[in-house]
Amino acid sequence: MWDRPHYRNGSWGEDSVKNMRNLCIPGTGIPLSWLAMHKDIALVFLWCIYPIVCLVAAVYCYLPRGLAAVAQGFETNLLQPDDWFSFWRLNCRLASAHAHLMPATGYAMENKWTFLVAAKAAGIPVSPWLEAPAALVAKDRNEEGGMGIHFFKNAAHGGEWILQPRLHNSAFLRGLLPPSAPLSTLRIITSSTAGLRRDCIRRVAYTGEQPLEGGALQEARRHITALSCVFRAGRAEAETDHSCILFDVDLATGLVGGGTTNAHWYRLWQLGGADLNSKHDYQVHPDGGAPVTGAVIPDMQGITDMVVGAHAELLADVPLAGWDVALTPEGPLLLEVNLSCNFFRGSFDAREYWSFVRAYMCQLDKARRRAWEQ
User: Fold this and answer.
1) What is the DSSP secondary structure assignment for residue 294, as one 8-state letter?
2) Which of 261, 274, 197, 192 is nearest to 232 (CA)?
């Protein structure tokens, strides 16, 4: 897929560079985007360097338990990796291949503006945006000579920038977070099996003209399942909740479980600090001391119904969708949908997930063979 067209960028290789430019090999600080700069570099890394990285990680994590544990850890890291990054990249490959080989219109929703407009038209609660002004000018108060000035043309008027008022956390979330925490969201992953049936795709595909309704919408909803939920509790003074503690959330009850971190994957150019043994052992927010584990997300069923309905109505023909849900004083709002989605170390039914991925990969393999034969 390296040079194949990608639904979000020019090619899969180009998308990989952009997606991984803020990630590193834990403990080394080496940007992962370097390994995707060229196909030959990626192959050399895969066949020669990656096994060494897996061995070092196994020794680092399992040596105190003995050589047998190291050997088992090496085999798992190399052949059956179960870290969040590997699941994310698998989801990315599935989305890329599916968008390239199958007639799925829902990938248009990866565009944030397209998604917001379509969701609003369907009556789905999304983050608001400013219709006016047509453009904004931002100036540095001390720069001179025409420097430090930036122009932002509103997407509502054909521009590239979505201009939005800042959202705030609900009272419930403010009770769990430090005062300076950013907007902190839920990441919910949903899956759709509609794309496994060609006859079903034709009935549930979003055309861009009007949302699904009636029997088509009901059929689409039958194919959508919520897989996982994570509460991204933003760190103090952070601008976004990408700097956070990841608390697992039970989809059935909204009960918040233990928290963990993947911050060591984001320490570019920093040696050490790789917490490869990180477990879900956070129970309180490290910056504010408020207990988070044991809290219950209000109206979890309503939030789940909202994202399941959005997946059914807007992109039922797309296998996986990652929803960013903001809990605000005005109620739950969808911020965006991510189609190369990330579980963020949330728990999910592994057997169900592997069966789902295998079914799609088999379908895509058949589609690829048909394309070659033609």
Assistant:
1) T
2) 261
For 368, which DSSP code?
Answer: H
Judged by DSSP in three states, 224 sits in: strand
DSSP secondary structure code for residue 83 in this structure: S
Residue in 62, 162, 66, 58 with CA at minimum distance from that of residue 115: 162
pTM metric for this prediction: 0.92
CA–centroid distance for 221 within its chain = 21
- Quick one: residue 280, left, alpha or beta (phi over 0 = left, psi -120 to 50 = alpha)? beta
Check: CB of residue 167 under 8 Å from CB of residue 127.
Answer: yes
Helix (H, G, I), strand (E, B) or coil at 121: helix
- Neighbouring residues of 256: CB distance < 8 A, sequence distance ≥ 6: 231, 247, 248, 249, 250, 292, 293, 294, 295, 296, 297
Q: Give 24-52 pLDDT, tens digit per residue.
A: 988 889 999 999 999 999 999 999 999 99
CA distance 223 to 46: 36
Please tell me whether residue 280 adopts helix, strand or coil conformation: coil
Strand ranges, E, within the chain: 135-139, 149-153, 185-192, 224-234, 244-249, 256-260, 320-328, 331-338
Please check whether residue 33 is in contact with residue 14, taking contact to mean a CB–CB distance below 8 angstroms.
no
Distance CA 46, CA 96 (A): 19
pLDDT digits (tens, 9 = 90+) for 270-313: 887 777 777 899 999 999 889 999 999 999 999 999 999 999 99
Query: Is the bond leading into 133 cis (omega within 30 degrees of zero)?
Result: yes
